């Protein structure tokens, strides 16, 4: 099932300092993950550095797909998540290197033979994930949480996956903020390897 296109409006300033819509239409970068058919990334915008530069610069979504936000920056995207198939649950872990390679972060995949889901991963970022459509299960190392439209997850660099155990595609919106692990957490994660 295909969900509706994302409509994006990006504002800017004209030569007289007046506000106007620089971009108004469909997203220019929408990409399906080949190793996970039906998983579609809808790239909305990203910023580099903090504070973010307020300018009339080029569209930062043009170019290769990249999972994490830029250094000291942010990224906003929508992700369509198809239902988990039994074939994916049985053999999905074998395809994760290809999937995470396509999204520019092979190191993010943490899947092992005893992982609770083939999409287990982590990024050194704080991510706000909002369920827009459908139901999603947040899979963590030791528990799961069912999410419905309007649910918000504040994901603080933890190992996780998004499981769709329904019969239709779900959509989430994510805002990713570059982060740095607290030294104690960094040591704990290193010890787990």
From TrEMBL:
Signal peptide: none annotated. It holds the Pfam family Cupin_2. Coiled coil: none annotated. Residues 119-175 form the Cupin type-2 domain. This is Cupin domain-containing protein. The lineage of its organism: Bacteria, Pseudomonadati, Pseudomonadota, Gammaproteobacteria, Cellvibrionales.
